[in-house]
Amino acid sequence: MFDGKRVNRLTDELQLIYIASSWVGDLARSPKISAHPSHLASLLDAIYLLKASKDTLDWERVLDWLGDDMETVCLHITLTYLRRRGLGQFDPSVLSRLAARQHLVRALELRFIHAMLDRYLIGGRYWDLPIPPPFAPGRYNLRRQWQRRVVGPLLGRR
User: Fold this and answer.
1) Contact 34, 126 (CB under 8 A)
2) What's the whole-model pTM score?
3) d(CA 65, CA 59)
4) CB of 23 within 8 A of CB of 78?
5) What would the pLDDT profile of 57-112 be if each residue is shown by its tens digit?
6) Which distant-in-sequence residues (6+ apart) come within 8 Å of 140 by Cβ?
7) For residues 140 and 116, is the Cβ–Cβ distance under 8 A?
8) Do residues 102 and 69 touch, judged by C-beta distance below 8 A?
9) Rounded distance between C-alpha atoms, residue 3 and residue 102, angstroms
10) Closest listed residue to residue 77, CA positions, set 41, 23, 142
């Protein structure tokens, strides 16, 4: 109940997963990575939610509710970026547990993603490099690319 009215909303744990997934999804779907203001709103939502629920957020529930690799990697990208910029206060063991659970983004690709966020989203520049932006999780993952480009076609799958 809020102000005498029934309110249906996500728990803070599910809200954090939703924010991270939608933020990374919005960035990955952008035709050109740029400083579009709508891409910052979800990041600010995550900062506010983490600050407001720092003493009550149940990280075990967050980890239990994560579904596939993509949800996990989205939360991992979001939290590592916030932590790196000093904007997220939470137990660092959460990051190591997230890293161990996802298989799309490893340390090198995560560094590329953070650099892209700093330069192109926060810095306000357009993507102008001759390689595709790293924000499709797994784009630079050699195992995923091997499966997709070599093994898949050999087995008749795409």
Assistant:
1) yes
2) 0.77
3) 10
4) yes
5) 999 999 999 987 888 999 999 999 999 999 888 888 999 999 999 888 888 888 88
6) 108, 109, 112, 134
7) no
8) yes
9) 41
10) 23
